[in-house]
Amino acid sequence: MAATKSMKEYMDMGLETYLKERVQDQESWMEAKSGSSKKKYHRVKLFVILLSVSIPFLVTMIDVYAYFKYIIAGVGVLIAAAEGVLSLYDFQNEWIGYRQTLEALKREKFFYATKSSIYKKDSSFQFFVERIETILTMENKNWSESALSEVTVEKEN
């Protein structure tokens, strides 16, 4: 992608260019980030589930193998660590947040293309851009607040 556009290039931007260079670019990024976060969340959660269900079986083995108490303790540590990773990186909320924003962008494009909803009264390109940019601004604000709350929690600890 090209470097930063000049003000004139932004002023001359039409619907197709805006959709391609701004909206579709954001949708692609959010789709990839949402999918990645979903996979990470499911993998770590599956790991926790499998470790958790192994504990009752491992406990039955303590009478036969005394060292199994150390294995059980290790499994407990792994469960706590995995849950800590989920808490720290918040993959689930990241996945859902990006998915919600992505769906809002798609819905807005649909309304604009069909002159539905609020576009019945004002179907101008400028109004569409304002609505899309508001959605993206809210996503950015949510991300910033989430990142700042993580920093605040880290400082308090």
Q: What is this entry, summarized?
A:
This protein has 157 residues and is mostly helical.
Write down the Rg: 24 Å
Q: What does the main sheet amount to? A: none
Question: Could you tell me the number of beta strands?
Answer: 0
Count of helical stretches = 5
CA-based shape: elongated
Estimate percent helicity: over 70%
Oligomeric description of these chains: single chain
- Give the termini separation: 41 Å
> Stretches where pLDDT falls below 50 for ≥5 residues?
none
Mean pLDDT: 91
What structural class should be given to the helix and strand makeup?
A: mainly alpha
Question: What's the SSE pattern?
Answer: HHHHH
General description of the model:
The chain is mostly helical and 157 residues long. The chain has one domain (22-156). Helices cover 82% and strands 0% of the residues. The protein is built from 5 helices and no strands. It has helices spanning 7-11, 15-60, 68-89, 91-114, 125-156. α2 (15-60) runs antiparallel to α4 (91-114) and α2 (15-60) runs parallel beside α5 (125-156). The longest helix is centred in the first third of the chain and has 46 residues, at 15-60. The model has no long low-confidence stretch (mean pLDDT 91).
Keywords:
157 residues, mainly alpha
